[in-house]
Design brief:
globular, 7-stranded mixed beta sheet, alpha/beta, single chain, 9 helices, 2 domains, binds S-adenosylmethionine, Rossmann fold, 7 strands
């Protein structure tokens, strides 16, 4: 190992400590429970790729989702189910927005490593939040009894129509996908908004839109199955 590698590793360790200190300071300064949750993740789960999950593009797509949800379906939800929910960023952002009245949000992901991180991120909201490890194709959606199902990971699942067919008829959904074909884990990208609409084939649609970012365009549909 070279001296340069040692120096770089030392810098990385320092940067992790600095990120923890900085986010804790930002949480204290802003009083934000969401930033406190991020500091908690950095402190307790240093292996989590939280910088990627909370980068400005991911945040922009979720701010967009939150605003369109508010504008099109309103502020009140009894129980929201988020599938492919990763580290639970969107639930934290919904809890963080005082305009919303939300009874409970449950985040489900097939990756067993992310449940504990989603719970750490949403620690300030734990009375109304839960995370579970499950395959979204294996859930009993009638038993879940959600009044909104969110899937912002449509580009990651092989059969969007097959998954939507598992939801009770009339279930309200918010779906996001993108045209970022070059990312290897994106197995189901769509070239444009019309292709996404055709792929989802929702029974009713209250919103369909596209959000251009530097490297790709994100698509969103809100409606019901
Ligand atoms: C990279 S993440 C989220 C990307 C998305 N654009 C976002 O920010 O919401 C995609 C997540 O989908 C999850 N996932 C993929 N297939 C799944 C399945 N069948 N059931 C549940 N989660 C799944 C992965 O484990 C991963 O955490």
């Amino acid at each position: 190992m070279t001296n340069t590698t040692h120096v770089n590793q030392a810098r990385q360790i320092d940067w992790h400590d600095a990120a923890f200190d900085l986010t804790r300071g930002l949480a204290a300064y802003t009083g934000s429970d969401l930033v406190a949750g991020i500091a908690n993740v950095i402190g307790k789960h240093p292996q989590a790729d939280i910088g990627n999950a909370f980068n400005h593009k991911q945040v922009a797509s979720k701010v967009w989702a939150r605003q369109q949800l508010y504008d099109n379906l309103g502020p009140s939800y009894r129980r929201i189910l988020v599938v492919g929910g990763w580290y639970g960023i969107l639930p934290a952002m919904l809890f963080d927005d005082a305009r919303f009245e939300i009874g409970r949000i449950v985040s489900c992901d097939i990756d067993p490593d992310v449940e504990i991180v989603a719970k750490a991120l949403n620690r300030p909201f734990l009375e109304r939040f839960d995370a579970m490890t499950a395959d979204m194709y294996a859930l009993d959606y009638a038993a879940q009894d959600a009044d909104l199902v969110i899937n912002t990971s449509c580009e990651h699942i092989a059969d969007l129509r097959g998954w939507l067919a598992l939801l009770p008829r009339g279930t309200r959904v918010l779906l996001q996908s993108n045209d970022y074909f070059s990312e290897p884990t994106h197995i189901s990208c769509v070239p444009d908004l019309d292709a996404f609409r055709a792929q989802a084939n929702l029974a009713s649609e209250v919103f369909a839109g596209a959000l251009k970012t530097k490297n790709y365009t994100r698509f969103m549909l809100i409606g019901s199955v």
